[in-house]
Each structure stands twice: as structure tokens, then as C-alpha cells.
Amino acid sequence: MIRSRLSWLVLAIASSVMFTGCELLDLNKMIKDWIEPAFEFDTQPPPGYKPIFIKRIERMPADLPNGAAVQIKSIDTRTPGVTRLYVHIVDSTGTYYGNATPEQLKKLVCEIEETVNGQTRVIKDVNVTEINEQRTDPVALAMITDNSGSMGQKRAVTVQEALAAFARTTDGRDALSVVRYDNKVNVEVPVTKDKDIFLSELRRDGLNGYGGGTAILDGTAEGIRHLAANAPEYQDRYAVVFTDGMENASKQVNKQQLIELSQQQQIPIIAVDFGARINEGYMRSLAEATGGSYYHIYLTDEFEPLFADIYRRTRNAYVIEYATPGYGTHNVRIKLCVGKGSATDTASYDNAPQVGSISLIDVQFDVAKSTIRPESRPAIQKVIDLLNQYPSMTVELRGHTDSTNSTGDPQYNQKLSQARAEAVRTAVVESGIKASRISAKGFGDSMPVATNTTPEGRQRNRRTEFVIISR
After folding, report:
1. In terms of domains, do 143 and 121 share one?
2. pTM for this entry
3. The dihedral formed by the CA atoms of 318, 225, 139 and 177, expressed in degrees to the nearest 10
4. Are 182 and 148 in contact (CB under 8 A)?
């Protein structure tokens, strides 16, 4: 394979010289796009590396078992002013303890505190819920796989077999797709609930037709777009992407644009680093900015338990929700108690808004009007607090509707969304924020994030957002 790619590269260089009058070529880029050396053998994991993958699920006992650990797997701050911790209780054997009783849920959080901007606050008003396989909705997953040359033929085949094994274990209501990328991107398996179709379209040919550079951003963006277009009825959608290297070949989107796309479509990124030749912190930042989760594995034979673990964690979790105390870097510590047993975990997150980031505002309006309902005041206050904390920040308020209204006229929707955005802007300005820092724009029904054929989809499309223009 390397020899054939070298032959192609020599031919391309010769042709370029012939037809461009010996213009200088970016040889490094050509080599990077078309040739990456294969690493057929795994990297030795670091000392103390002992990943815990969920293998089985058991009912929460009366007392938390000795050795059970609390894991904050993901932190979602996409709703302004709200923090959601997705927490798992797992022991060293891979047993997840779920299906807690209402009484256990009520007492689950015995301590939680956050430190931000040098101040430590004890969080007292906490809401705890549980999602589990018995009550959860089906999920839609885009499995976005690195097929760059560094993966090597043997490891690539192993990943493909792991995908097949994973698909056989999923609920028949779930939707799956596969996107492959090197320096190019292809949807190999379109979204399907049919396992037989998935398995028949999933190729087990390693790097055949691939082996070039590493377009992580383009591959992930394609997976998100494909889910958004082909699985709009699913409330829980995730883009699962792994890489064994560093971004070097994306041409369609940059990092911030990918984050915005994920936020707009409400499809979190579950990011996986494989091996030691990675860009430290890069994949983690994609997960944290989109409300997803992050993994770092080292061994090829871990892909199969990894995929199973990701699937189980999307369908089982304790969700701890509370009002976020301010903006910036947060260090959070939680202690969970069940009966006589307890366990703790710590994590950090940064909710300082970035330029271009888009956040939803939970603003409610009277039907077909731009009158803000009284229960929306806390949501608007959070925007005011943000602007007060960052005095140079400017934002654009955006109004959206679904595609239905009393007249069936898209222009009506546009005018209504504009009026609603202006109403929120007026409320913020009346608090003392300078009008020059806030603009308002209505988009009508032109930018749906869900289907308009269901009540749930239409509700998601009727939304107000703010986007950070400058800081």
C-alpha cells in the first residue's frame, strides 16, 4: 500500500511540474494527506492504567458496596446557568449500580461543592434523576472511525470487528451509522435500525481505500450532519469519534465551527484518544465543549469493551442538576451516599463562553405573541449576569419558530421570531446593559434543529438563543 501511494505521489509531483511550470509544491502537505506511517503495534500503557468498562448492571443495594467508585463521566453546561453532572457508580469488576429507589435518589448527594474564581460554594439546591435502560429512550449513534495510515491494517480490521460485535448487542430501536475518515470522509453505513443492514454494509477491509492524513474535524462534522438529517426523531443522539493521532487534514470546518454545529444540533461529541501519539487535551476539549464525554485507551483489544461501555453509559446515569455558580473554571467535588456507604469524585469544567458559541435561553412566550411569560425572568437574568461579568462582551439574540402557524406563512414566522428576539433584547437593556452590546435577529423556521412532524420536534425548534459575538 505504501509503495502504491509513493508511486501515485511521484506521478502527481511530475504532473504538477509539467502543468504548472515548476511552481513550488507543498510537499509536506501532499505527503501528510496521502501517506501516514502505520503503527501495527500498540503503545505500552502508562503505569497505573486500569480502565473500568461497564460489563453488567445490577440494582443498587441498600448500602453502597465497598470498592464502588463514583465517576463524573460528563458535564453539560449548554443551558446557561445550569450544570448537569452525568455520574456513574461502578466497581472494579465493571458492575454498574443503577435502578435506585426514590428514597435512595433523594439522599444520594450528601455533599457537593464548587470552587470558581477563588470562591468555594456548597451547593444545596440539587435535583437528582436517573436514566436507565428500562426507562430510557432509544439512542442514535454515529460511529466516526479514524482510517488514517497510522492505524495500520491489522488494527483497523480489529476496530471494524469491534463495531460489528457492538451492533449485535444494541436495542433494536436504536439507530446506528458509520463514518470513515482519513484525509477524506465517507458515510459508509447510513443511519439504520436494522442490524442485518448495518452488518452487511459495514466493511471489514481495514484501510483499503484509506490510509491518508487525519481529518478529525471534517469526519466528526459529517457524522453530526448525517445524524441530524437522518435521525431527527431521536432525542438522544451522539457523535462517537476516535483518533490515534492529531488533526492535520480537515478542510471543511475548524474546531470552533464543529463545536457550534454540535451545539446547534444538540448532538454531543463522545471523543476517544487511542495510543500515545495524540494532541494532549484536543479531543477532551471537543467533548467538554459539547456536553459529551472523553476516553483515552491504549490497546486495540479495548475497542470492543469501549464501544459497549459508551453505549451503556448513554443509557444509564445519575443526573445531578443545579444552578451554576458563576462563569469560568470550576472545580467540583461530589460525595454520594447510599445507606452506610459513600464515595467521592472530583472534576473540572470551564463554562466561560467562547466567541461564536451558541446557548439556548429558556424563554417562554404567549402563543403566537412576543409577550414574555413571567416564568422566563430567571433565564433572562442569567444573560444579564453573564454580560455584567464580561463588560466587553457583545451578543446576538436569535429567535426561531417551528414551521407551523395559524396562517402557514413563513414570513409570519420570521416576523414573530424577530419580535421575540427584540422582546428579550429590550428586557436585557432595561436592566442597565448598554443597547450597543446586544443585537437581535429573527430566523423564523429557516433553521430547525429537529423535525417539525412531531410535537417534541416543534417544541425544540421554537427556541431563543444567544451567540457570543465578541469578548
Report:
1. no
2. 0.76
3. -130
4. yes
